[in-house]
Structure formats: structure tokens, C-alpha cells
Amino acid sequence: MKRWRYGIPLAALVVLIGLLAYGLGLDPRHVPSPLVGRPLPALSLPVLGHPDPQARWHSAALLGKPFMLNVWASWCVSCREEHPLLVELSGDDRLPVYGLNYRDREADALAWLERWGDPYIASVHDPKGSAGLTLGVYAVPETFLIDAEGHVRYKHIGPLTRAVLEEHFVGALP
Amino acid sequence: MSVRWLCLAGLLVAGVVTAEAPLYFEDPEQHERYQGLLEELRCLVCQNQSLTDSPAPLAQDMRREVHRMIEAGYSNQQVVEFLASRYGDFVHYRPPLRAATLLLWFGPLLLLGAAAWAVVYVVRRHAGAAIDTDAVDDGNRPC
Q1: How many CA atoms lie less than 13 Å away from B100 in the CB half-sphere?
Q2: ipTM above 0.85, yes or no
Q3: What is the pTM assigned to this prediction?
Q4: pLDDT 10s digits, B76-86
């Protein structure tokens, strides 16, 4: 009976330590996106490097086939980590890759693609970050998987890895 | 060129690089709403800061958006809901009170309550034992 009394504060301490340890393991940088499961907000943006400055890329025009939207920028160092994977993926036509060039100068962006390779069918230009705001972009790189119905299926924060591509992108295709 | 001039020049450049055009409203009431909203919204990059003072480029974008929406006539609630629909509940600087956040809000209070109860319990037991005079043999007291 006496031992039971000492057990309570010990148990409470163990529970508290357990909770704190779990909390330490969480990454606050990974903010879950409320867009997952919802339709991608309609985007209509200028195309990077297009000869006609009035030309627009419309997200609505892509309904019917799943695609990947990769948010990148020439000033983003981690983007270089995932870039070879994207270049590799662009050779595979299961999943078209579109880019969203976020808060970048067009000249810098084009030079970067020239240097490291252009895996994108097209990259849209978002110099002020307004499209990014609509998509809930807060870190670069971020990658969205949009399904054939135009719904966001998955959002990946940070550079893509082969494992993530296998599990959540290419692997998740019907 | 003295070091002092160089430092001054450096400071000026730094100011220009980080400065953002301050966002004004014609209407003082709108400005007050704007300032109030900034305090309620979190910067997703500098996550411990509200939009009031975060220097991150994303915060600049979010401030511009709040300004645009207020000017366009949206209510405070609509502005917050719009940002929450894009960034999630985390964009509230103060976590909203929901079933999922009950432990977050009341956990510390509960812990404090439990600790206080434990203290009272232990003190009472200990005090009870100390005042237990029946066991003392007074027979040989000198006074």
C-alpha cells in the first residue's frame, strides 16, 4: 500500500518525460498543409522564359492527368539537392513535372535552369510570391502532387528524396 | 576612409536591404485592425514571431496580403480564415481552443494543480505526524 503511493508521482514523471520526448522528436518546420485533399486553387501565371509576356499557364487546363508542381528558386540551395532527381523524373512520362519559380528574378531563374538542367515542362513565374501565398508555400523547395481531378494529394516540404518520390509521388499514381 | 565611415555606410546599406515599404491605410480604423491582425498571425518562417515584427520575406508577403484584404473590405475573420485555409491552424499566433488543443491550453494548469495537490497532501501528512504528541513520554520533563 505504501509503495503504491510512491508509484504515482513516478508514473506521472514517466508520462511527462514520454510526452516531452515525443514533442522533441516532432519537427515544427513541417507544417501540415490544409490543402491536401482539397482542389488546387486555380492558378493563372506567366510562364518563365516565354517569348510572349502575356502568355499564361492555367492550372485548370491540366485536369485529367496527375502532375507534380515543384516550387523552386535560383537562390534556394536545397533545391540543388533534389534537382538531379527531378531531371531524372522528367525522362519518365508517368508524372509530368511543372515548376513554380518563387520570388525570383527571371534572368537568374533561367540561368539556373541553363546551368543545372530543366526538368520542367513549363515553369511559372511568381516573382512576388502571391501564387505561393495562395498555395501556402512557406519554405523552398516544396512539391505538390495533384491528381487527375485537380485535388492536392500530397505536399512535401524540403528537398525530394528517392524514397519520398517512390512512396508519395510516382508510387502513389494509380 | 576611416573605419567609422565604413561602419556607417554598412549600416545604411543594411537598412535599405531589409527595409520594406511600410504599409499605410487612409483610414485610422483600418490601420488599427491591420496592426491587431498582425499580432494575431504567426510568421511561418520565424515561427516564434508574429507578423508584426518578423523580417522574413514570407512575412512581408503575408503583411501585404492582409493589407490588400483589409483595403478590399474583408472582415478580420475572413482575413484570418483565408490564411488559415492556406497555412493551417498554425498561422494563428494564439492556438485556437479546440478539442485537439485542450491539452495544450490546460495541460500546464492541470500539472500545476496536480503538483499543488501533492504538496498539500504531503505537508498534511507530515504535519500530522509532527503534532502527534500522544507518543511522547512526558514523565521525565524537567519543568
Answers
A1: 4
A2: no
A3: 0.78
A4: 999 999 999 99
